[in-house]
Description:
Layout: H1 2-11, H2 22-26, H3 32-36, H4 45-56, E1 61-63, H5 68-71, H6 81-87, H7 95-104, H8 111-124, H9 128-136, H10 141-147, H11 155-160, H12 164-167, H13 172-182, H14 184-199, E2 203-205, H15 211-218, H16 233-239, H17 245-248, H18 259-264, H19 268-274, H20 277-283, H21 288-300, H22 306-322
Amino acid sequence: xxxxxxxxxxxxxxxxxxxxxxxxxxxxxxxxxxxxxxxxxxxxxxxxxxxxxxxxxxxxxxxxxxxxxxxxxxxxxxxxxxxxxxxxxxxxxxxxxxxxxxxxxxxxxxxxxxxxxxxxxxxxxxxxxxxxxxxxxxxxxxxxxxxxxxxxxxxxxxxxxxxxxxxxxxxxxxxxxxxxxxxxxxxxxxxxxxxxxxxxxxxxxxxxxxxxxxxxxxxxxxxxxxxxxxxxxxxxxxxxxxxxxxxxxxxxxxxxxxxxxxxxxxxxxxxxxxxxxxxxxxxxxxxxxxxxxxxxxxxxxxxxxxxxxxxxxxxxxxxxxxxx
Length: 324
């Protein structure tokens, strides 16, 4: 907030701040199934809804910067693609080794074992897009197959079937950016902003997603999007003309919430109610035993991943509201 205020002062624009209380944020959670109409797991939906509500009180249309990360290398993960590049060689990994690791660590909730198992499963995928999908998800595809009482289908294959051969000619960074542009951007980021804004009768516009901009950027070499130290190189060079470097040359910060604290304290009654044996059996979409095991592990281990519980909670709340 401090940097935003300083930038507004430098540019001479109006600046509005909202000091959000924990109570205000938590009150949004039970309404998420109504707001999103689907099991939407991005926790930043909560602050996005609150900022949309505040904006509507003063304006009717807003501009959003979505697309800047996906098309100008704004995420740190684009710097970790060497690992994925190495996984291209995973076809040489003996199938029996991958299967053995998978069985030994089957549905293990230990964080260290989970990372090993995730790497093992990624290595067994022959399809690079399936590997990217496993990196991006909170649950392994094998876990989902065990946990969800429905036939599993690979939506990744459906999305990339027609373009897969051409895409494999791209460098690793461009390949991952394209993957995000086809999945994460429309299914998460844009859905989040659209539902939160429209629920508050606010029109959100996305200038960086203008097709002329995207067609131009797609032709640029990766070196114009990220230098040797950080992403968004081209955007930063443009900003250099208008803002002092101290305002934009800073680490990236997400729009996050104190997830672990909420789930351990204020949201725990909702978790216990929604992910109880009775509630899970009534809805009947998730394997009760597996979900209870994940919940038990979270509350007994301080280093467990809170977002796995959050995803299950959001899914169960949605299912109870619309399907039961």
